[in-house]
Amino acid sequence: MQSVVLLLFLASAVSAQSFLRNDITFSGGTSWDVSNYSQYVTVVSLGATYGYRITRTIELEAGAFGAINPMEGSCGFNGCFTPDSRAIWVPFGVRFVLPLKHDRFELSAGVGGLYENISGGGYSYNSYNAFGGYVKTSAAVALDHGRHFWLGATPRIMLANGQYARDRWFMLTGDIGFRF
Q1: Alpha helices (H) along 46-151
Q2: 3-class DSSP state for residue 113?
Q3: Coil vs helix vs strand at 18
Q4: Which residues pair with 33 in a beta bridge?
Q5: From the CB of residue 171, how many other CB atoms can be counted at a distance below 10 Å?
Q6: Are the beta carbons of 141 and 178 closer than 8 angstroms?
Q7: Distance (Å, whole) CA 16 – CA 54
Q8: Which residue segment(s) compose the domain that 145 sits in?
Q9: How far apart, in whole angstroms, are the C-alpha atoms of residue 64 and residue 25?
Q10: Rounded to the nearest 5 degrees, what angle is found at the Cα of 175, between the Cα atoms of 170 and 177?
Q11: Of 7, 21, 57, 140, which has fewest CB within 10 angstroms of its CB?
Q12: What's the average pLDDT block by block, 10 residues per block, for the chain (180 residues)?
């Protein structure tokens, strides 16, 4: 009898949920190094983010973004050398959501910590890890009536301070999300 009551309670709680808690978003766009001493160029960035809504307007999120060959080539007397470099960013933090238009359009802003890994692939480029933070804003619209599929755009600023590096990246991505 207790298990039946527990099952009925859980079933009623699931149907009473007014918002979708889980959010998986795939992003693609471009990144610019906007630091003062820039050894990087504009690169294509790809990533994914997972978010969990703890309330209707607050979401905890973590993700991973990557860029291939963010370091520009160096040319000298013997020709040009293009390093096989990679940049990986792992942001984690909180996002504040403002639902609009019957929860079918939303604006949001997020802030949190950042782990950065730059791996240089050449003789003059060193690999390093750095920690920092990020700030982002986004706008998204639901593509279906059940609000499961979302399309949006997100600008991000990522700041990381390594031992010998002060990286400042601006990333602009288009986002495709699925919520459940």
Answers
A1: none
A2: strand
A3: coil
A4: 169
A5: 23
A6: no
A7: 15
A8: 22-72+82-179
A9: 11
A10: 140
A11: 7
A12: 63 58 97 74 92 96 91 64 79 97 94 92 72 98 95 97 86 97
